[in-house]
Specification:
By secondary structure, this protein is an alpha/beta fold. The protein folds into 4 domains: about 40 residues, no CATH class; about 200 residues, 3-Layer(aba) Sandwich (Rossmann fold); about 240 residues, Dimethylsulfoxide Reductase, domain 2 (3-Layer(aba) Sandwich); about 150 residues, Barwin-like endoglucanases. Helix content is about 25%, strand content about 15%. Strands 6-17-18-19-4-5-30 form a 7-stranded mixed β-sheet. A 6-stranded mixed β-barrel has the order 24-28-25-27-26-29. The longest helix has 19 residues. Bound molecules: ligand MGD (2 copies) and molybdenum atom. One ligand MGD binds next to loops. Molybdenum atom (MO) binds next to loops.
């Protein structure tokens, strides 16, 4: 259609947008995104940006209240959450209801009965980030039950302080940089591969993408990559990595088999193990199978882990072969190769998102110590390469402060983030967490903004039942996502495309500009919390009298006070971004993890009790956990290939991060929908696995175990080891009446079991299933349709 000659010409605006998967230039007109383009400071554009064009689809248009809750009050027919119509109400009505309910629950049941942890990835704006808006609101309101840790790296976060005396995130920033790797590393052994698509993403904002560039440079420089994991394509084929398929969850066994080989073949660096490590004697005894007394005899406290650890079997390459499925000769050869070369050992985070997920991170460090290469340029220990885009970029981070969030008030419980179902199920029940013992509160009200527990949590059918216990659930969401439709009150939030913000993305700071008016009656999370705070008499405390745009300037000026080289605010807004002073997109300050400690462990001790790397932790021993021994160890998971339950469920489910989206975000939109097979999430399996079950490419299959089931569309691919099947996370949970997820969300199958009492992290990657052809007409997927809405005129 051609425009009428007298129609005004549409002006196309170009503005910048920062996201967790990179910064972009958006061309927009009349509130529509016409094009998503590469940002000039980004050498490589993430294809995930395309989803931004779909920000106006499937939106929550007006505040909406679940019918029974509105009619009969809090606690009414909670089993109908997710199944009954919503009544659309005015903002004033919705805000009055929510404010009154917060006040009621607080006065009747106390602040601990409100759960406000609000885990999730929300937006990348420093100010607009929904979870920090919520934390500010809840803490100024007097506090609530909160959470600690992440679904991403909980086990690593818990373990790092004991092992090397620094936090996981602090350690991440001190990692050996790619520039050093290119010059020095000969062998880069990667447990869980190094997925290029995962590397597009960094929490809080990805700066320029340079992962592929660095991997290419390393390859040219002669670095050899080894991919230990269930999927060949956890490395780009172009990298030519050597693939070592392993039974998932068996990495510790492989590492111990390698350590055993190094010790018995005289290749262990015994000197380094004495000068730089604490507890080698104990670990050595575990590896050599010298018995409990030799390994733990010096410890005079309780030893409840004794029965969970096998102290008598030598962890030979042959033993490791029986656990991992990798031939003993191959394990021995790898051990010798690692000892002969400058070797860097890397773990993806997937290896710790599993039962006893503390152990792979600890054992890999032990392996790097046995090799004696910790702190050497290009050798030793690495982590999270391939899980987050900025890893190894060796860059000084730019700090842009976010919305100020007050300290957590002492008093209300703090749970490990992934223990939410246990908390809802068991008020008053005791829990152990990282040396503390607490009791779960009795949660009456759940408040969530910027996260999707019906994406991220394990064993979703169990969460559905526990989710019925609170009296009220309030959610801020832009979209009719799985969590929005399971709320009692849904407050429609804007997306970052409908508001201004500041993105602080590692090496660059981006002025994010609204490209559209708020869709429907949606409002910024800030606006929503400010109106609620007013109703609860702390409006002024929450806003400090500022509009959102005024906050942005304050935040920028705080940044500029510490970075005087950054231009004045109006110049920043005009240019749309600033590069952090002195940073190039391929910034390469030279950095080696633990280099100073290696050079002089006496002058530069670690902040551990011994000052050394702890391969034995008295502190952890003192906790007396039966599921987390005080040294790296092979611990049987609750299920595994070749182990428990594999007779009934002979396939391992790999539920990794999706290449086509960020978690569950924009799963409803065209870019993610284009990847679906037979209308649901694809499941990849080896052709032999499919053939043995009469399954063909494109078939709808049913994956099942004792916990649940889901449907998925088959893709045959020999990049998947025959004993595994792979479904990416994030399909919008769509349970049929029997709990089978029709859309293909793997968390209908995963187990909700903490990694151990230490980290209490999620165990999503420990999961066995069986697969069968789905007979008959597959049911349609309904989760992408909005719920039934009834309009109330008020
Ligand atoms: N099986 C299995 N499960 C897993 C994992 C796994 O490996 N396997 N990985 C886990 C990991 S590492 C993670 S980090 C989690 C991720 O879990 P989440 O972070 O919860 O997942 P997202 O889909 O990113 O959810 C973000 C939600 O915020 C909403 N949102 C976006 N912008 C805004 C905003 O401005 N305001 C508001 N109010 N809402 C907004 C989005 O629409 C979306 O619903 O999943 C975990 N789950
Ligand atoms: N495109 C995209 N990128 C993302 C995200 C996203 O949603 N989309 N999410 C981001 C987030 S929140 C996080 S935390 C990171 C997560 O980063 P990771 O935790 O590293 O990512 P995963 O995709 O879960 O796992 C990577 C690979 O590990 C392998 N693997 C699984 N289990 C095992 C095992 O037991 N042993 C071994 N050796 N290998 C195993 C699988 O083959 C899998 O493909 O990714 C980030 N990157
Ligand atoms: Mo994550």
């Amino acid at each position: 259609m051609t425009a009428a000659p007298d129609a005004p010409a549409t002006t196309v605006r170009t503005t910048a947008m920062a996201t967790h998967f990179g910064s972009f230039l958006l061309d927009s007109a009349d509130g529509e995104v016409l094009d998503v383009r590469r940002h000039p400071a980004d050498p490589e554009q993430s294809h995930l940006g395309e989803s931004l064009r779909h920000f106006a689809e499937n939106r929550v248009m007006r505040p909406a209240v679940r019918q029974s809750w509105l009619r009969d009050g809090p606690g009414a027919a909670t089993h109908l959450r997710g199944h009954e119509p919503f009544v659309e109400v005015s903002w004033d009505h919705a805000l009055d209801l929510v404010a009154a309910e917060l006040a009621r629950v607080r006065s009747q049941h106390g602040r601990s009965s409100i759960f406000g942890g609000s885990y999730g990835w929300g937006s990348a704006g420093r100010f607009g980030l929904a979870s920090s808006q919520q934390h500010r609101f809840m803490r100024l309101a007097g506090g609530c039950t909160d959470q600690k840790g992440t679904y991403s790296s909980a086990a690593a976060e818990a373990l790092f302080p004991y092992m090397v005396g620094m936090g996981y995130h602090a350690a991440l920033a001190r990692q050996t940089s790619w520039s050093v790797i290119c010059e020095n590393t000969e062998l880069f052994v990667c447990f869980g591969g190094m997925r290029a698509t995962n590397s597009h993403v960094t929490y809080g904002g990805q700066g320029p993408h340079h992962h592929n560039d660095w991997v290419g440079r390393a390859r040219k420089a002669g670095v050899e990559f080894v991919n230990v994991g269930p999927l060949r394509d956890d490395f780009d084929p172009a990298v030519g990595a050597h693939w070592l398929p392993i039974r998932p969850g068996a990495d510790v066994a492989l590492m111990l088999g390698i350590i055993h080989t190094l010790v018995t073949d005289g290749l262990a660096d015994e000197e380094f193990l004495v000068t730089h490590c604490h507890g080698w004697a104990q670990l050595r005894a575990h590896v050599l199978g010298e018995g409990f007394a030799t390994a733990c005899g010096d410890w005079d406290g309780a030893t409840p882990w004794r029965d969970a650890v096998d102290y008598d079997t030598p962890k030979t390459a042959g033993w490791a072969a029986s656990v991992t499925g990798i031939e003993a000769a191959r394990i021995r050869a790898l051990a010798h190769e690692m000892a002969a070369k400058r070797t860097l050992v890397n773990l993806s985070l997937s290896t710790q998102r599993a039962h006893h997920g503390e152990q792979p991170y600890w054992t890999a460090l032990a392996l790097a110590c046995v090799l004696g290469q910790v702190g050497l340029p290009g050798g030793g220990y690495a982590f999270s390469f391939g899980t987050q885009g900025n890893t190894g970029a060796g860059q000084v981070r730019v700090r842009v402060p976010g919305l100020p969030v007050p300290m957590r008030q002492p008093g209300p419980p703090v749970i490990a983030v992934s223990r939410i179902t246990e908390m809802l199920e068991g008020p008053g029940e005791p829990f152990d967490f990282d040396g503390h013992r607490g009791r779960f509160p009795d949660i009456k009200l759940v408040y969530w903004s910027g996260g999707n527990p019906f994406h991220h949590h394990q064993d979703l059918n169990r969460l559905v039942r526990a989710w019925q216990r609170p009296e009220t659930i309030v959610v801020h969401e832009p979209f009719w996502s799985p969590v929005a439709r399971r709320a009692d009150v849904v407050l429609p939030a804007t997306t970052p495309l409908e508001r201004n913000d500041i993105g602080g993305a590692e090496t660059m700071i981006v002025a994010m500009s609204a490209v559209a008016e708020p869709v429907g009656e949606s409002r910024d999370d800030y606006w929503i919390f400010a109106r609620l705070a007013e109703r609860l008499d702390f409006g002024e405390k929450f806003t400090e009298g500022r509009t959102a745009d005024e906050w942005l300037e304050v935040i920028y000026e705080i940044h500029r006070a510490a970075n005087p080289e950054s231009p004045p605010y109006d110049e920043f807004l005009r240019d749309g971004y600033v590069m952090a002073p002195g940073m190039s997109p391929m910034g390469e300050p030279r950095q080696v993890f633990l280099e100073a400690f290696r050079a002089d462990p006496t002058a530069k001790p670690l902040r551990t009790p011994s000052g050394k790397i702890e391969l034995w932790s008295e502190t952890i021993a003192g906790y007396g956990y039966d599921d987390c021994p005080p040294h790296p160890a092979w611990m049987e998971p609750f299920e595994r290939l070749g182990g428990a339950r594999s007779d009934r469920f002979p396939l391992h489910l790999v539920s990794n991060q999706p290449a086509a989206r960020l978690h569950s975000q924009y799963d409803h939109a065209a870019p993610s929908q284009a990847t679906k097979v037979a209308g649901r999430e694809p499941v990849r399996m080896h052709p032999d696995t499919a053939a043995a079950r009469g399954i063909a490419d494109g078939d709808v299959v049913r994956l099942f175990n004792d916990r649940g089931a889901c449907l998925a569309g088959t893709v045959l691919d020999d990049a998947v080891m025959p004993q595994a099947v792979q479904i990416s996370t994030g399909a919008w949970y769509d349970p049929a009446p029997d709990g089978t997820c029709r859309a293909g969300n793997p968390n209908a199958l995963t187990a909700d079991i903490g990694t151990s009492r230490l980290a209490q992290g999620p165990s999503a990657h420990t999961c066995l299933v069986e697969v069968e052809l789905f007979e008959g007409e597959p049911p349609p997927v309904k989760s992408y349709l909005p719920p039934e809405l009834v309009r109330l005129d008020n």
